[in-house]
Design a protein that fits this description.
heterodimer; A: 318 residues; mainly alpha; MetI-like fold; two-stranded antiparallel sheet; 15 helices; 2 strands; 1% strand; B: 296 residues; 2 domains; 13 helices
């Protein structure tokens, strides 16, 4: 009886593992599709039935970073001879592009990518440093109405972006911060600060107070013990918080859509705007999407031990 | 808890504890007040006016008219109904799929960590960009979804009946991993001896599941449920980049259009307040449960 039972259990166990693997493939399917489209020759992106096996191409990446005037007719041999190797690949792909003498120009994508980097990095540094000291304050000192203050801090995170964006748009227009890096950075710091305080408070609470107390006995001031004892102990937590804040700022769409249009526009509102009218070139869009998603995918692996903590604002640590 | 005892040794050297506490906490609170609370007060003021941000005509105070108009506007109500439908479909889908995945993963096998992390990938991506590339997957002429399921040229995102559900399916794909993550934490915390005791008592699988597993995982499932409900209610990015169907116009999209396309600023401030009050109500419940789980 017991043997039958355990045999059945082993079979069920195997079935569950097989189910998990199938589920993983299903969940990765859409990501695989966008990643593979980023390396497809233009004509293979829109075939029926969809193309799965193909020789990877670099032309979508070239088209993503450059812009050129499409011209009709045959390729001019002189233009072909004068073109750099990557431009030749576009010609070889069957496109009639670039007249003789025209220089290839950079597309807007690298600029949008750069804006995303600037805004995400600066806002992360600010949100994490302010969040770390504030978390220390909440973790180590008594405060009147502490629970209410922490609730207030968290509730700012829950505000719907469009709700906050309406008055912020009007105020930014008054002071000329619309379509500026600083304007977007301020919004992202405000948005990430609450998260950073809550997550860092969880990490601070885990650092034994005895470490600092020993330092105080040794003649450190409270400030010195914070910088020399607590901060190094909190390094892992700070790194994890920073990566979370970076991903949030990197991915953010609504504020960027409303507050920026050219100068400071980040990648999330830019990438969908590439679709435009007519037949979209999905390989180029996929290439832009792929490069944009890649850092987040890498960071997700780096963060895997802290994901649970991160998505519950530090409340559940396992 | 380190006290703020003025006689403590630390207090006599360098900065006092009280000064450090204030220095560490007050700037953050001020920052949040200036950039979150002040704007909301500002827009509360505008919600009682007929201000239009793209015109230079002077605005006038119109009292509660914006709120009265909004609450009697059938269009707005239909946006709320669409949002409710979306929340119910997408959150219940996420709960079922996410908890199901967690049950499958709740055992040890080679490369479990890798499989789990890969499954968590969708929720880390940018919702706007996810919405964009699902357009390619849903494409009626060359999309892999229609090909795989033999749906011919069914246009998911421009079909008035299907658009909202197409967005919900994408949202389920994106956020089931979140429910899975919390459920896995709950499942791994169920003490093994309870299952052993159940096995000795010859308890059936269903009985074990409903009497042992579910009750112990319930607090974390509830957290996932409330959080996802709140987020789904606020959904903007994913739906906005996927479809322009009026039947999929969620309340956040309606708010965006009213504020930044029709430039009906005063009225959109009023609508923003109605949405805000609903979100704060859910936030309150969420934080209450979060603190309860935390204290365990």
């Amino acid at each position: 009886m017991a043997a039958v039972r355990s045999a059945r259990k082993a079979v069920l166990n195997r079935l569950a593992i097989a189910g998990a693997l199938v589920a993983m493939l299903v969940f990765l399917g859409p990501i695989y599709w966008i990643a593979s489209t980023a390396f497809k020759p233009k004509e293979l992106a829109i075939t029926v039935p969809p193309t799965v096996v193909f020789t990877p191409e670099i032309t979508p990446m070239i088209r993503l970073f450059t812009k050129r005037v499409q011209i009709q007719g045959e390729t001019d041999p002189a233009a072909y001879a004068a073109a750099p190797w990557w431009e030749k690949r576009i010609y070889d792909g069957g496109e009639r592009v670039l007249k003789v003498g025209d220089a290839v120009q950079l597309s807007q994508y690298p600029n949008r990518f750069e804006n995303s980097l600037i805004v995400a990095i600066i806002s992360t540094v600010l949100a994490v440093s302010m969040g770390t000291v504030t978390a220390y304050g909440f973790s180590r000192f008594r405060m009147a109405g502490e629970a209410d203050l922490l609730f207030f801090i968290l509730s700012t995170r829950m505000l719907p972006p469009v709700v906050v964006a309406i008055p912020m748009f009007l105020m930014y227009r008054l002071v000329g911060l619309n379509d500026s890096h600083i304007g977007l950075i301020i919004l992202y710091v405000a948005f990430n600060l609450s998260f950073s305080v809550w997550l860092m408070k969880g990490f601070m609470d885990e650092i034994p107070r005895e470490y600092e107390e020993a330092a105080l006995v040794d003649g450190y001031t409270r400030m010195q013990s914070f910088f020399k004892i607590v901060l190094p102990e909190a390094a892992t937590g700070i790194a994890a918080t920073a990566v979370f804040c970076f991903i949030t700022a990197w991915n953010e769409y609504a504020f960027a859509l409303i507050m920026t249009n050219r100068r400071a526009q980040t990648a999330p509102p830019f990438i969908p705007s590439q679709i435009g009218s007519g037949l979209p070139d999905w390989t180029t869009i996929a290439a832009g999407t792929f490069l944009f998603l890649l850092p987040v995918a890498i960071f997700t692996f780096a963060l895997r031990k802290h994901l649970l903590r991160g998505v519950t604002f530090g409340a559940i640590r396992k | 808890m380190t006290s703020l005892d003025p006689r403590s040794r630390a207090a006599t050297r360098g900065w006092s504890d009280l000064a450090i506490r204030n220095l560490f906490v007050i700037p953050t609170l001020l920052f949040l007040i200036v950039f979150n609370i002040f704007p909301l007060i500002y827009s509360l003021g505008y919600s009682f006016t007929d201000y239009a941000a793209n015109r230079s005509v002077p605005w006038s105070f119109i009292g509660l008219k914006n709120y009265r108009d909004l609450l009697s506007d059938a269009h707005i109500w239909s946006n709320f109904v669409i949002t409710a439908k979306y929340v119910i479909v997408s959150v219940s889908g996420q709960m079922l799929v996410g908890f199901g995945l967690a049950l499958l993963l709740n055992r040890s096998f080679p490369l479990k960590g890798l499989v789990t992390t890969l499954l968590l990938l969708p929720m880390m991506l940018s919702a706007a960009v996810v919405g964009l590339f699902w357009q390619l997957l849903y494409s009626p002429s060359w999309g892999p979804i229609n090909y795989l399921f033999g749906l011919g040229d069914f246009a998911w995102l421009s079909d008035p009946d299907a658009a909202l559900y197409a967005v919900a399916i994408t949202d389920i794909w994106m956020w089931s991993p979140f429910v899975m993550l919390l459920s896995l934490a709950g499942l791994s915390a169920v003490p093994k001896h309870l299952y052993e005791a159940a096995a000795i008592d010859r308890a059936g699988a269903w009985y074990t599941f409903t009497r042992i597993t579910l009750p112990l995982v319930a607090p974390l499932l509830l957290i996932a449920l409330i959080f996802r409900t709140m987020e789904a209610f606020k959904t903007f990015d994913i739906a906005y980049t996927m479809t322009t169907q009026p039947t999929a116009e969620l309340i956040a999209i309606r708010l965006y259009k009213q504020a930044f396309q029709q430039w009906d600023t005063g009225k959109s401030c009023a609508l923003a307040y109605i949405v805000l009050i609903m979100v704060l109500a859910i936030t309150n419940i969420y934080v209450k449960y979060l603190n309860r789980v935390k204290e365990r």
